[in-house]
Design goal:
It catalyses: L-cysteine + L-glutamate + ATP = gamma-L-glutamyl-L-cysteine + ADP + phosphate + H(+). Pathway: Sulfur metabolism; glutathione biosynthesis; glutathione from L-cysteine and L-glutamate: step 1/2. One of its GO terms (cellular component) is cytosol. InterPro entries: Gln_synth/guanido_kin_cat_dom (IPR014746), Glu_cys_ligase (IPR007370), Glut_cys_ligase (IPR006334). It is a single chain. With 520 residues, the chain is α+β, with helices and mostly antiparallel strands. The chain has a single domain, classed as Creatine Kinase, Chain A, domain 2, CATH 3.30.590. The chain starts with 5 loop residues before the first helix and ends with a helix.
Length: 520
């Protein structure tokens, strides 16, 4: 099932410097709420900068859905420090509001409107808002306020060069893109380990339970707050209940070959969907209801557990950047907000993700077809809905049998420990080994997992009480935290600069919005 990678580990042990250039980035989403837990009805605060042009503080689907974006860094402590400073800066500029500490918006009030995020009067800004209007019309507005954490990860170029020596005669990015697709396939095969360990959305409000098939298949329990939960679930956020998910199987998007991936993605961007045609491109008042009627309005609508990425240049689309320069990094999208961390993620998670993603790059990665993906998705579903169930068994890829989850985890963690030894030896500390042993115990005692801990609080204290307590606790921590002088100055300058940049963009428009959309 999982190959013996002793030789690969030995190779890595001989070349430990190949892992010193790992770069990471974090994107954290969080809802602005009132003190009573209701959704904020105010616009994105002016003193946080322009959400259109600010590098690090923006909005996602709605006006009250904040998104914090860190610069890429090869130092974990610097990454977390900057993310903390963004939270502190934001807390000092949202007055009496707070930041909701969970992925799921449990305290939604039906009497409040969810306001689509606005980005000003430029064509670019209008396009971003219309895209979100399309998401609302396609999937609903409440479901698009579910929040998560995205973890961006890249291995150093020298790693791929040494590892894929047979590919060096091809284009400069061929072997890198091939390597990342190799990693992505393995993440699909074994990435369910992440929601098992870190999933933190084992419950969901009744508003989300509109999928009768799921409701019938799994017997939900209900608490006094009309919150539904499953006793062994881990991350309902990434299930077909809570996740705004475009199924890659339906779009026939596979990760076996770079050109085939790009072709299938382009087809999804260009092919009209009967379902979305029925929505209509415009309403009776001639207002756009979506950017287009295709399966995907833009590449960002491809919601998957992991996806290949490339930094874009001015005027480029994400797929154009990939076509020109190949895959630069991967984006992990299966992380719930960590409610036990003020900033939604902690160092232990990053250390474990590093180990696991390196492992995914090392082990064999057989190509997959639709039949394989169906089996792979069944394993994800098992973990999402019943991951902590005693003696849980998983399907074995390419074999007609199952194996106990704890047995598979032991095989994986045996390898992770070896990788941890290499990383710790080079950095002269024990942090990777410590976190590896700590997370390994989660499989022997599922009550240690984030989902079990938050579910216990939900049942004992109630989700609203717990959410408001944590949001207030973290708010006080942010307010009392001393932001580094450098970061404080950078963030203040970026606010001013972002507003200036938005004004420049608006003044530079020469096309009507209709013409602008046609040219996209």
């Amino acid at each position: 099932m999982i190959e013996d990678i002793s030789k690969k580990i030995s190779w890595l042990r001989e070349h430990p410097k190949l892992l010193t250039g790992i770069f990471r980035g974090i994107e954290r989403e969080t809802l602005r709420i009132k003190k009573n837990g209701d959704f904020s009805q105010t616009k994105h605060p002016y003193f946080l900068g322009s959400p259109l042009t600010h590098q690090w503080i923006t909005t996602d689907f709605s006006e009250n859905l904040l998104e914090f974006i860190t610069p890429a860094s090869n130092k974990i402590d610097d990454l977390l420090s900057f993310l903390t400073d963004i939270h502190c800066f934001t807390a000092s500029n949202i007055n009496d509001e707070r930041m909701w500490p969970f992925s799921i918006p449990y305290s939604y009030n039906k009497n409040n409107n969810i306001q689509i995020a606005q980005y000003g009067n430029s064509n670019l800004g209008k396009m971003k808002s219309v895209y979100r209007t399309g998401l609302k019309n396609r999937y609903g507005d409440l479901i698009n306020t579910i929040s998560g954490v995205h973890y961006n990860f890249s291995l150093p170029l020298c790693f791929w060069k040494y590892w894929k020596t047979t590919e060096q005669k091809k284009n400069s990015f061929d072997y890198v893109s091939k390597g990342y697709l190799h990693l992505i396939r393995n993440y699909y095969r074994f990435g369910w380990i992440i929601p098992y360990l870190f999933g933190a959305s084992p419950a969901i409000p009744s508003d989300f339970l509109n999928n009768s098939n799921t409701n019938i298949k799994y017997q939900f329990k209900k608490n006094k707050e009309n919150i539904f939960y499953l006793p062994w679930s881990t991350s309902l956020r990434i299930s077909n209940i809570g996740y705004t998910q475009t199924k890659i199987l339906d779009l026939n998007i596979m990760f076996n070959n770079f050109d085939e991936y790009l072709t299938s993605l382009q087809k999804a961007l260009d092919t009209p969907s009967r379902k979305f045609i029925n929505i209509g491109l415009k309403d009776k008042k001639n207002n756009f209801q979506q950017l287009n009627t295709n399966f995907l309005q833009t590449e960002n609508e491809l919601y998957t557990q992991i996806r290949p990425k490339r930094n874009i240049k001015n005027g480029e689309t994400p797929i154009e950047a990939l076509k020109k320069r190949g895959i630069e990094y991967i984006e992990i999208r299966s992380l719930d907000i960590n409610p036990f961390s003020p900033i939604g993620i902690d160092k232990n998670q990053i250390l474990l993700l590093d180990l696991f993603l390196i492992w995914c790059a090392l082990i064999d990665s057989p190509k997959t077809n639709k039949k394989d993906f169906i089996l792979i998705n069944k394993n994800w579903e098992k973990i999402i809905f019943e991951g902590r169930k005693p003696n849980q068994k998983m399907y074995i890829y390419n074999q007609n049998k199952t194996k106990k989850l704890i047995e598979i985890s032991e095989i994986i963690f045996k390898d992770l420990k070896k990788i941890a030894l290499i990383l710790d030896k080079h950095s002269k500390n024990l942090e990777y080994q410590i976190v590896c042993e700590k997370m390994r115990l989660f499989f022997f005692n599922p009550q240690l997992t984030y989902s079990a801990r938050i579910l216990q609080l939900l049942i004992k204290e109630g989700i609203k009480k717990t959410g408001l307590y944590l949001s207030q606790k973290y708010y006080k921590k942010f307010i009392n935290h001393n932001i580094s002088n450098i970061n404080k100055k950078i963030l203040q300058q970026e606010v001013e600069y972002s507003h200036q940049k938005q004004t420049q963009i608006e003044k530079s428009d020469t096309l009507s919005f209709e013409e602008y959309i046609k040219n996209k």
